[in-house]
Design brief:
This protein is mainly β. Helices cover about 10% and strands about 60% of the residues.
């Protein structure tokens, strides 16, 4: 599902860090070494069909690499 984040991501929380991330070897191989963390937050998103919804977003992030593999976990509206 393709989507675009509108505005800021709020209520950001760390779900896992370091070896607690299941796909850590993949992240290191694909994007490089870093202090990887899995995070979640709430954002307004625009879906590919133009619909605007409030959603819980999950992603992986490392300092100097940025946000990777963003996905919508669930809709909140």
């Amino acid at each position: 599902m393709h989507f675009e984040i509108i505005g800021d991501i709020t209520d950001i929380e760390t779900i896992a860090a370091g070896s607690g991330i299941r796909i850590l070897p993949f992240l290191r191989k694909q994007y490089g070494e870093g202090r990887w963390r899995k995070l979640k937050g709430i954002a307004t998103v625009r879906l590919s069909d133009g619909t605007v919804r409030l959603a819980e977003i999950h992603w992986f992030e490392a300092h100097g690499i940025g946000k990777k593999k963003m996905r919508i976990k669930r809709f909140l509206d």
